[in-house]
Amino acid sequence: MTNPLHTILQQMPKAELHMHVEGSLEPEMIFALARRNDVTLSYASVAALRAAYDFKDLQSFLDVYYAGASVLLQEADFFDMTWAYLLRAQADNVVHAEIFFDPQTHLERGVDMATAIGGIDRALRRGQAELGISSGLILCFLRHLSEDDALATLELALPHREKFIGVGLDSSESGHPPEKFARVFARAGALGLHRVAHAGEEGPPAYIETALDVLQVERIDHGVRCTEDAALTARLAREQVALTVCPLSNVKLRVFDAMAGHNMLQLLEAGILATVNSDDPAYFGGYINANFEALFDALPLQRRHAYQLARNGFTAAFLPPALKQAYIDRLDAFFLAHATPVGEFG
Ligand code: ADE
Ligand code: ZN
Prior knowledge:
By secondary structure, the chain is α/β, with parallel strands linked by helices. It has a single domain (6-337), classed as Alpha-Beta Barrel (TIM Barrel). Helices cover 49% and strands 12% of the residues. An eight-stranded parallel β-sheet has the order 1-2-3-4-5-6-7-8. Helix 5 runs parallel beside helix 7 and helix 8 packs parallel to helix 9. The structure holds adenine and zinc ion (ZN). The site of adenine (ADE) has 11 residues, from helix 4. Zinc ion is lined by residues 18, 20, 170, 198, 221, 279.
């Protein structure tokens, strides 16, 4: 039987705060762009590429993900990829999106900052104008590379300062603690940029602490391993640090063995500002609504949790207070209009 909450999950207005735009490249688009740009892929067909989406951990995913991104060469490629994501997000009733991109992945292939950021930004502006989706772009540093490389990347981005709102930290987590990037995050802070970091996805809870204390991040991407440390869990709740959780990613990358073992309910019951996001939707089996549905199908989550998770998304967004409140008012109106039927609890 389908979960009666699906309609609410699908239709409620929502924010997405953790989505790598290169991770929204569907296999069909990877092949289309490879043809357009004369790039040779090491996969014979869309089906062969899809068959490689059987990951045993974060690194085995990243290897395929970086291969997929190799087809992005021209400004139009970055535009088309971002526009396709926005259309898909609109279908899931995403009204605000803060999206990541990995400039170093492109710079090292000879694709300059203006090409990548220009194409993504043009799609985001069209998304605001034509789809009514507000957005922000976050430039992520690859933690498997050096801090000097990250510092140089930030300098290259500065001529495009008005096109991004913050910096993040992604790629291989284990062995690359947040504190490796102390100077570049300090520089980003001095420039008035928002700061986020992946931490506690595969890496230990200590990485969440140093992301907060050394990098001064405002949100933690993933952060699900915080529950291994009771004091840290209490701190995240007390300080209302948002976690941008990605349920399908967590299962695909074997952070949890199965969705039924996901700790989302534990996070919410601890009072943590947890949100639902899609991470790399083309690789992990679904966009944001599929993440909500998989979570609600596997765990004893109810209507009030759907409201809380959607509300947390707006609360945690890098938006001016008035706009944030306007989105929360819209969410409240949605839930009022979809009142709980008599006899149904939640
Ligand atoms: N880059 C893209 N997706 C990622 C993830 N889930 N963790 C770390 N780096 C990433
Ligand atoms: Zn991520």
